[in-house]
Specification:
Oligomer: single chain
Shape: globular
Structural class: alpha+beta
Largest sheet: 8 strands, antiparallel
Mean pLDDT: 94
Helix content: 25-40%
Low-confidence stretches: none
Strand content: 15-25%
Number of strands: 12
Distance between the termini: 25 Å
Radius of gyration: 19 Å
Length: 268
């Protein structure tokens, strides 16, 4: 990565590498991260959170697309015929961090020490401390159907004002609101995750989507959020965004810490 990033030091190039459950067995064997398993498929009344194949995830970010392109090119050249790419998505920043449906995304992300606590594995799995779990899903949106919905109803579906990004008051927010169903409470406290969702699309192909990327200390909170969205909490009280959006991929990966990877390079 340094051979690419040095060309534009202010380009903030980064790459996160995640390993899927099946690939972990092949690459590292035992021990394995305590909660690493295949993505859990969910079906409910025509709504479907699919589970799709994927052994390695490369989450490449930069302020310039050429840096991302060059790093991906070098990674694939190094891996050669040992891998077969199954999906590639090029996301982009959309105005003031908005999703393709027009709402600001990632507003509730934790910051500072709270972010590390939410994302990084700790003493609960000491062999893999400072690693993290990442859940990814590729959603496609029917923008024609979405834009036909009045803005006031869109705001009720999302749970926030569209222009100002202000969260709706609980008295005005329906129980099926997206941000209500994505709130997980444990021991009286909200469990936070780090979202790094990116919009993507091609107007010529009439493709409009969101690539969901959720980093978390444990995959359990994300799985609860997805269950609430697709099945409902209680069942039937599902996320109305799914009336105009569908998931076409789904994967769970573990991201080892830099310390773990450096130890591998040093051998036994």
């Amino acid at each position: 990565m340094r051979s690419v990033g040095f060309r534009e030091p202010e380009g903030t190039l980064s790459c996160v590498v995640g390993v899927g459950s099946n690939a972990w067995e092949e690459l590292f064997g035992e021990p394995r991260p305590a909660e690493l398993h295949p993505f859990v498929e969910i079906r409910s009344e025509g709504r479907h959170a699919v589970s799709t194949p994927g052994d390695l995830l490369f989450h490449i970010r930069a302020d310039r697309i050429d840096l991302c392109f060059e790093l991906e090119t070098q990674i694939l050249a190094r891996l050669g015929r040992t891998v077969t790419p199954v999906d590639e998505v090029q996301g982009f920043r959309y105005f003031d961090r908005r999703d393709i449906i027009g709402f600001v995304d990632g507003t509730e992300n934790p910051e500072g020490p709270a972010r590390d606590h939410a994302v990084l594995v700790g003493e609960e799995d000491p062999r893999f401390a400072a690693g993290t779990y990442v859940t990814v899903q590729k959603y496609l949106h029917d923008l024609t159907a979405w834009n036909a919905i009045p803005v006031e109803e869109q705001e009720r579906i999302v749970g926030r004002k569209k222009l100002t990004d202000i969260e709706l008051d609980d008295s005005a927010k329906p129980p099926y609101a997206h941000n209500a169903l994505n709130k997980v409470i444990e021991d009286g406290k909200e469990v936070k995750i780090l979202r790094d969702n990116m919009p993507f699309g091609s107007p010529a192909r009439r493709e409009f989507g969101t690539y969901y990327i959720g980093y978390s200390r444990s995959p359990t909170p994300v799985e609860r959020m997805l269950h609430n969205m697709f099945v409902g909490d209680p069942p039937g009280n599902y996320d109305r965004l799914l009336d105009v959006s569908r998931a076409v991929t789904g994967g769970l990966f573990f991201v080892p810490s830099a310390t773990f990877l450096e130890a591998l390079s040093e051998g036994p």
